[in-house]
Design brief:
Strand order of the largest sheet: 3-2-1-6-5-4
InterPro entries: CdaR-like_regulators, CdaR_GGDEF, GAF, GAF-like_dom_sf, PucR_C-HTH_dom, PucR_C-HTH_sf
Protein name: Transcriptional regulator, CdaR family
Strand content: 15-25%
Low-confidence stretches: 1-5, 541-548
CATH class of the largest domain: Alpha Beta
Number of strands: 16
Largest sheet: 6 strands, antiparallel
Organism: Micromonospora marina
Helix content: 55-70%
Domain GAF: 82-233
Mean pLDDT: 79
Distance between the termini: 134 Å
Oligomer: single chain
CATH topology of the largest domain: Beta-Lactamase
Pfam families: GAF, GGDEF_2, HTH_30
Structural class: alpha+beta
Shape: elongated
CATH superfamily of the largest domain: GAF domain
Number of helices: 22
Length: 639
């Protein structure tokens, strides 16, 4: 380096922003050149001034950077969209501007009463990033309590604040040594702490503390602004929801008024269930299902699947208890009741959510449905009385004016000259109470009317006249269906077919005899016809209440030993006797029918002789044995 006679070279060093060590160069060169002491003193003074200028310029550049960072933070606040993004930006700037290894922020949790780590920058420890601190613990607790900044050059050895194992462990795992913390203030409250930390010892200048305080103030403003924005948005959402509710309520009130007028008109002009369902779905939208008390469908509008029976029962019970429609999943249920009687339910699957007024529409529809069902029941009962009186007159003796009876039948859609069967229902269909008897009669009336027939109560017994020729099938169907309704086995005897009013009384008498025969044969709870019982049925039909005891005694004295032998030994003596008598006493044909050897048949019949006596084949005894076998088969039809 050439020797200078003036401090110009220091200006050049300042101009190119040289490092501080380079400012020693001119003095070293001057001493080497042997310049006088006065000249060296002048250069030393110039160097000191130049270094001062250099330090001032560095501070101004740093201040400019800090102001730029604060400006950027203010810009972030002005365009605040996401609080987390703003807080991360502030913490990152704190780390960059202060030149620390780590910067982070903790916030107070008012619900849990502690402090948690909200944002970190430069952190490498997962444990440190998940720290939660009790209020008053650690350096942050001291800052929060006093509301003033605190700095420590060695966190682990500083005794000014309360140490905890959790905090010290997290700080130690992160490797932090020097920490500066400043409060986040909202008014007079401290809501958190902003930190700058280093993994080695370092001092924090007053300007750095002031900078971190400014950044903390911006962070507090961001948090408060976000809170206000959230509250504003919530208030606007509530206002919007209230406005929608008001509009929806106004609309639903108008719909309710229109629905009320429409359903009132339906009742006045005698509309049906389909009309009610259509009115409800037109007003509320969606699909609707109307069910009776047994869960059978009365009407359906739109696509809606029938719920499970258990779900219907539970929902209807809840609706009756609450006195309102109830919701179960996507479906609304409204009980259809008249006083304490359950008549059914309306099941609605709406397209949109129902408000209170919409629920009132559904409940009003349930009330209209109850009125229609009661009216329908009244009409049905009146028609049932007419039909019952007709059947009672048809089976009465003596029969009067058959032409008038035919005319009465034609008016209710019954052709007396078509084949009909008569079914007599046993007393086991109902308890002794009059209400149970009336319920059975009501069921029989509905059952017969649905099939174009008649039903009546005659001498305390229920009788049905049904179109068709299969008396046995009709008896079994009545016994089966009525058993389901009453919950107890029901016996039904039938006779027919009968054509013309003149023969109905005789057919009814035969049906009653068939019913008595079923009781005598021990076949209570079953259905059969006189044709199926044959001559045995005719004989037993006149026996009366003692028939069952007489049949059992007759069987025991006639073929009882054979029945007992088969039961004990698992043999086929009864089957062999039936085959033997069935083929006219031919051993060969009986063996062929039983698929056994003739000798086997002979041996079995010899065993029968041992059990019944050797005279069992004499004509009078053979007739009794055959009658007993027939009775035994009728008593056990499953065989």
């Amino acid at each position: 380096m050439s020797v200078m006679s003036s401090p110009v070279e220091f200006l050049e060093l300042l101009a190119r922003e040289a490092a501080a060590v380079e400012f020693e160069g001119p003095l070293v060169a001057a001493r080497a050149a042997g310049l006088p002491a006065e000249r060296l003193a002048e250069l030393e003074q110039a160097k000191v001034v130049a270094l001062r200028v250099r330090a001032l310029l560095a501070r101004r550049r740093r201040r400019e950077t800090e102001l730029s960072g604060l400006y950027d933070t203010a810009s972030d606040l002005a365009g605040l969209r996401d609080l987390d993004d703003v807080l991360r930006a502030i913490v990152h700037r704190a780390r960059i501007l202060l030149g620390t290894d780590v910067a982070y922020m903790t916030l107070n949790d008012d619900e849990r009463g502690d402090t948690y780590m909200r944002v970190t920058d430069g952190s490498i420890s997962a444990r440190f990033q998940r720290l939660r601190l009790e209020l008053g613990d650690g350096l942050g607790g001291l800052v929060a309590q006093t509301g003033t900044p605190y700095v420590t050059s060695n966190y682990q050895e500083d005794e000014r604040f309360r140490h905890t194992g959790e905090i010290d462990g997290g700080v130690g795992e992160e490797g932090l040594v020097a920490i500066l913390g400043v409060p986040l203030r909202l008014g007079s409250s401290v809501i958190g702490v902003l930190y700058a930390a280093n993994r080695s010892a370092r001092p924090f200048a007053r300007e750095e503390v002031s900078l971190l305080v400014s950044l903390a103030a911006h962070a507090a403003v961001a948090i408060d602004t976000a809170r206000l924005l959230a509250e504003t948005r919530a208030a606007l959402a509530e206002l919007s929801a209230a406005n929608r509710t008001i509009r929806a309520h106004s609309s639903s009130v108008e719909r309710a008024a229109a629905a009320h007028d429409r359903m009132t008109a339906l009742v006045v002009r005698g509309g049906g269930m389909e009309d009610v369902a259509a009115a409800v779905t037109e007003v509320l939208g969606g699909a609707l299902l109307a069910l009776d008390a047994e869960g059978r469908r009365l009407a359906r509008v739109g696509e809606i699947e029938e719920p499970d029976r258990a779900d219907i029962v539970e929902a209807v019970a809840a609706s009756r208890t609450e006195g309102r429609s109830v919701r179960r999943g996507p479906l609304w249920y409204a009980a259809v009741v008249a006083g304490a009687e359950n008549l059914g339910a309306l099941v609605l699957r709406p397209d949109d959510e129902l408000v209170d007024a919409d629920q009132r529409i559904l409940e009003r529809a349930a009330l209209v449905t109850a009125l229609l069902l009661l009216f329908r029941r009244t009409v049905a009962e009146a028609e049932g009385r007419v039909r019952g009186e007709l059947l009672d007159d048809l089976i009465a003796r003596p029969l009067r004016d058959t032409d008038a009876l035919r005319a009465r039948a034609r008016r209710i859609g019954v052709d007396l000259d078509a084949p009909h069967v008569l079914v007599a229902v046993g007393d086991d269909a109902f308890a002794e109470t009059g209400s149970a008897r009336q319920r059975v009669l009501s069921w029989a009336t509905t059952y017969a009317s649905a099939r174009g027939g008649l039903a009546a109560a005659r001498d305390g017994r229920v009788v049905l006249m049904l179109p068709g020729q299969d008396a046995g099938g009709a008896a079994r169907a009545v016994a089966r269906d009525l058993s389901r309704v009453t919950g107890r086995p029901v016996t039904a005897g039938a006779s027919g077919p009968s054509t013309g009013p003149a023969s109905l009384a005789v057919t009814f008498a035969e049906a009653e005899r068939c019913l008595s025969a079923l009781g005598a044969l021990g076949r209570a709870g079953q259905g059969a016809s006189t044709a199926e019982l044959g001559f045995v049925g005719l004989l037993l039909g006149a026996v009366g209440d003692a028939g069952d005891r007489d049949v059992a005694r007759f069987l025991a004295t006639t073929v009882g030993p054979v029945l007992d032998y088969d039961a004990r030994r698992g043999t086929a003596l009864v089957k062999t006797l039936e085959a033997y008598f069935g083929v006219g006493g031919s051993l060969a044909r009986a063996a062929e029918q039983l698929h056994v050897h003739v000798n086997t048949v002979t041996q079995r019949l010899e065993r029968v002789g041992q059990l019944l006596g050797t005279d069992w084949q004499r004509p009078e005894r053979a007739l009794e044995v055959q009658l007993a076998l027939r009775l035994h088969r009728l008593r056990t039809p499953a065989r």
